[in-house]
Amino acid sequence: MTSARRPTPRKIRRRDRREVVIAVCAVLAIVVVTGVLLYVLKPDDDEAQTPTPIPTPTTVPATTVPGSPETTVPATDVPATTEPVTPPPSG
């Protein structure tokens, strides 16, 4: 018959103090760098509240008309005729 042996308890090896200090310092460095990057790269609050208006052109650029003796026709803001347009009489 075999004798009943009691299993030997495993010894838990304690971590070296230097290894623990290095790990804690690495975690702290990661947290500090992340905080600094979040602070530096955050969007400005002033720009978020007042968006920059999109500029609109005041004049239409000149265009070329094919078959015309002139190569460009200047564009103007005012129509060529200033007379009011009246609808034809319906009758």
Write structural notes for this entry.
The chain has a domain of 26 residues. The chain has 91 residues and is mostly helical. It has two helices and no strands. 32% of the residues lie in helices and 0% in strands. The model has no long low-confidence stretch (mean pLDDT 76).
Topology:
Elements: H1 17-40, H2 45-49
Question: Which descriptor suits the 3D outline?
Answer: rod-shaped
What percent strand? under 5%
Number of strands: 0
Helical content class: 25-40%
Largest sheet: none
How would you summarize what this structure contains?
The protein is mostly helical and 91 residues long.
Which key phrases capture this entry?
about 90 residues; mainly alpha
